[in-house]
């Protein structure tokens, strides 16, 4: 008698399952297959992730999917930032995947980053079997509890039947209202269990009703203040980018002829070349932008949140200004600065309605007179342009600002520029000309070192026909450079400019200004000129092209050579002088009126009254 077991029935092919789902025929599948089918139904084309024990059941059907490309990263943080870069470059939801325990916790930094910057991502994690939850099982971590404060919403799924509904809800929540991250944690037994798949699932989200259409009374009141103002300023935040409202904003600016400032997260919302654009406000903003906000009598605030890096000492920010504050998130309005006219709504609809209201007022004769104000702000812009000089004794060395300025000029406005965090981030925000939205990606709110390389990778996957530059510091680069292997293996030819000053540059700048040049643990090399690691050799080891530039006269040729290589990643080690500083600068915690434009300008604050400016926590990694 034979003891051979009958061969198992072959699993239905993904295409067959998709056909059945489309025909709304209930189909018997595993929870893992249901997950993959749900991702396909949501038109997901790319997932960044790493497999592991608890999520492993999902990776088997993922192998059969002809619609979803999985990109195997080298670290889960890289998966999360890649999903962010994908989402930020396109506006679509980015997706990352990890296993339980350390796999899930390695996503936390990227999830927090996405939460602060309103980036729509869905993070899918495996969890130990439901019976083992709470027993401190191998690789168990309460990732739902851990991420509760840094997600729009999160789920723990232990029933395979719930997977399609939860995935549909997760994508809806991530992409509507104020965008943000959603975590879906699925137990291993739910992935392995049999279930019935059908699409679309029915779901109801009581309490989640984002208000898109603004209240007409508030729109009319805002239009009235705009007509009455003498010194109004458009204070534009990243919400305009996320809300796809850049075109409408430009129309509004043209209609009103009111000066505009764009925050770090809103670079490109209005072209830098526009004559009414005064630049970026805040700690390292232009003098014209900072001064215009301080002297204004009306702030037309669109998709911005009065962040401390913009306002400086909040009590002294724009002291004479009334505030119109429009945001999709009602929690942001009057959170930091009281709004005279609060407007809750989708920023595109808000701007569209304001255009109608202002146009009607103008036709009725209520036209604001901003001529003198425009002339004054244009004068500040002309008198205090952004610029830089080499530190004394370093005139023949490479200036980091010059490198970044030339990258922007040679690569052009259609490229995507992704920055790490620190001095190079601020210089990239200042010296690259941004003419379109989604050309500038960076970690704004959280200030995450290591963001640039994986986020650039995600942006290049999303937009393979664009040139994508990661502008990184030698400190940031060493946190996530392992994703170069991912780029090489998956044919993702990003370009990386390492602004190599042998230091944690922004922290060193703070130590120069506020700690008597006591450089505690900010030198990344044992001596100036030493190369640990040698970035060109590192690039070669990863299968990239490595270039080095150490002379000002070689900058353009090096950038052009990098631009000619489009089949593999290119890493350029720009060896720059280490004592360059980011100017202008408003020291943390003081009034924007104390803006400094040169390092020999004495700080204009009372140290006894504002000792917080000298505390180490102010010299954060980002220094924005």
Structural account:
This protein has 624 residues and is an alpha/beta fold. The chain has 3 domains: 14-197, 3-Layer(aba) Sandwich (Rossmann fold); 216-383, Rossmann fold (3-Layer(aba) Sandwich), CATH 3.40.50; 400-575, 3-Layer(aba) Sandwich (Rossmann fold). The strands form 4 sheets. The protein has a 6-stranded parallel sheet, with helices on both faces. Strand 18, helix 24 (555-564) and strand 19 form a beta-alpha-beta unit. Helix 2 (31-41) packs across helix 3 and helix 17 crosses helix 24. It is globular, with a radius of gyration of 26 Å.
Question: Can you tag this structure with a few keywords?
Answer:
single chain; alpha/beta; Rossmann fold; six-stranded parallel β-sheet; 19 strands; globular; disordered N terminus; disordered C terminus
Helix content: 25-40%
CATH architecture of the largest domain: 3-Layer(aba) Sandwich
CATH homologous superfamily of the largest domain? Thiamin diphosphate (ThDP)-binding fold, Pyr/PP domains
- For the secondary structure, the number of strands is 19
Q: Tell me the β content.
A: 5-15%
The rounded distance between the terminal residues' Cα atoms is 77 Å
Mean pLDDT: 91
Q: Main β-sheet, in a few words?
A: 6 strands, parallel
CATH topology descriptor of the largest domain: Rossmann fold
Question: By helix and strand content, what is the structural category?
Answer: alpha/beta
Low-confidence stretches: 1-11, 600-624
CATH class division of the largest domain = Alpha Beta
Major beta sheet, strand line-up: 3-2-4-5-7-6
CA radius of gyration: 26 Å
Instruction: Indicate how many domains the architecture comprises.
Output: 3
Number of helices: 24
Silhouette: globular
């Amino acid at each position: 008698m034979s003891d051979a077991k009958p061969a198992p029935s072959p699993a239905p092919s993904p295409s067959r399952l998709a056909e059945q789902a489309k025909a709304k025929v209930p189909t018997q599948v595993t929870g893992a297959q249901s997950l993959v089918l749900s991702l396909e139904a949501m038109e997901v084309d790319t997932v960044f992730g790493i497999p592991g024990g608890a999520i492993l059941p999902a990776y088997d059907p993922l192998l059969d999917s002809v619609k979803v490309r999985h990109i195997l990263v080298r670290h889960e943080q890289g998966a999360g930032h890649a999903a962010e870069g994908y989402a930020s470059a396109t506006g679509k939801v980015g997706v990352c995947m990890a296993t339980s325990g350390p796999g899930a916790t390695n996503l936390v930094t990227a999830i927090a980053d996405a939460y602060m910057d309103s980036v729509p991502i869905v993070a899918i994690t495996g969890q130990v079997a439901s019976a083992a939850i709470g027993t401190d099982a191998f690789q168990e971590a309460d990732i739902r509890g851990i991420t509760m404060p840094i997600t729009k919403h999160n789920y723990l799924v232990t029933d395979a039947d719930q997977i399609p509904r939860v995935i549909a809800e997760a994508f809806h929540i991530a992409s509507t209202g104020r965008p943000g991250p959603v975590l879906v944690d699925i137990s291993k037994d739910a992935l392995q269990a049999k279930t019935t798949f059908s699409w679309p699932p029915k779901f109801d989200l009581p309490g989640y009703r984002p208000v898109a259409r603004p209240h007409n009374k508030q729109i009319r009141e805002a239009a009235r203040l705009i007509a009455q103002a003498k010194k109004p300023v458009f204070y534009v935040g990243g919400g305009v980018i996320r809300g796809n409202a850049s075109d409408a904003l430009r129309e509004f600016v043209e209609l009103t002829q009111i000066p505009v400032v764009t925050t770090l997260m809103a670079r490109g919302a209005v072209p830098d070349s526009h004559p009414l654009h005064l630049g970026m406000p805040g700690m390292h903003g232009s003098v014209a932008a900072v001064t215009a906000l301080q002297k204004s009598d009306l702030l037309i605030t669109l998709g911005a949140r009065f962040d401390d890096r913009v306002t400086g000492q909040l009590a002294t920010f724009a002291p004479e200004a009334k505030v119109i504050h429009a945001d999709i998130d009602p929690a942001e309005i009057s959170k930091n600065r009281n709004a005279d006219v609060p407007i809750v709504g989708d920023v595109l609809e808000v701007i569209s309605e304001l255009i109608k209201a202002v146009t009607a007022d103008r036709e009725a004769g209520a036209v604001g007179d901003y001529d003198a104000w425009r002339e004054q702000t244009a004068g500040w812009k002309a008198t205090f342009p952004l610029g830089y000089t080499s530190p004394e004794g370093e005139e023949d060395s490479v200036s980091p600002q010059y490198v970044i300025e030339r990258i922007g000029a040679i690569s052009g406005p259609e490229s995507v520029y992704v920055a790490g965090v620190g001095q190079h981030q601020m210089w990239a925000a200042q010296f690259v000309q941004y003419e379109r939205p989604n050309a500038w990606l960076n970690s704004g709110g959280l200030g995450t070192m290591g963001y640039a390389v994986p986020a650039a990778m995600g942006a290049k996957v999303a937009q393979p026909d664009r040139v994508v530059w990661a502008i990184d510091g030698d400190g940031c680069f060493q946190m996530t450079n392992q994703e170069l292997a991912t780029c090489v293996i998956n044919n993702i030819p990003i370009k990386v400019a390492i602004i190599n000053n042998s230091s944690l540059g922004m922290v060193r700048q703070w130590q120069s200004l506020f700690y008597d040049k006591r450089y505690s643990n900010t030198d990344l090399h044992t001596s100036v000129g030493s190369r640990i690691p040698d970035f060109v050799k590192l690039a070669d080891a990863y299968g990239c092209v490595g270039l080095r530039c150490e002379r000002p006269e070689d900058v353009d040729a090096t950038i052009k050579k990098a631009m000619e290589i489009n089949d593999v990643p290119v890493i350029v080690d720009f060896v720059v002088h280490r004592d360059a500083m980011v100017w202008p600068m408003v020291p943390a915690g003081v009034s924007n009126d104390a803006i400094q434009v040169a390092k020999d300008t004495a700080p204009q604050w009372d140290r006894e009254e504002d000792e917080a400016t000298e505390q180490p926590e102010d010299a954060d990694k980002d220094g924005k």
